[in-house]
Hints:
mainly alpha
Amino acid sequence: MIDGIVYLIYNFVMKKLFILVAIIFIGTASFAEEMTKSQQAVALYNDNNIVNAAKVLMSIPEADKTAQDWLLMGNILQDENKMSEAVFMFKRAILVDKNFYKPYYNLANIYLDEERVIMALDNYKIAVKLKPDFVYGYYNMGCAYLRLGEYKKARKYFVKAISVASETPDKPEISPDFYYNLAFCYNKLNNPKKAKEALAIYDKLIENK
């Protein structure tokens, strides 16, 4: 039985994935000195040393900050639940590089959390246009359309997310909730057969977790 929608928004998890992992580990002080400030900030952030990551980023002159720097500053502020400041940083990242898909996605997630669904969709659409194999961009678009009650469009993007995932060389893991929400859409669209098929895959994925 489908009890309701699972609004699984890949915000925090995907945001972590979006930080360029330029450093696997910091072995020595001399190695750290060879790193750029941007690389140091990434390494500190990935090590959950948020305070020092922010300090390093703030020490970079504004004119020298990359889109990745602004993105990371936005992520830090988002971690601190300072959403308006995070939005500002993501927009600065876009000003530096309008073809950088990651800040559009993070902006969209904030807008969706705030129920500003149309604005969220506008940014998801840009993100997937810039990165056509972006599985979670398509999935979250499906979630956005669910909130609008547009079940055909929601179904389209859940199917698209699953299809893209299967065609991507690194085969990103598909959450069971992809299929649960897809089943919900089929149920709303009066297609119980397809809903049952999607739920069967959902149950199998849950069992294998």
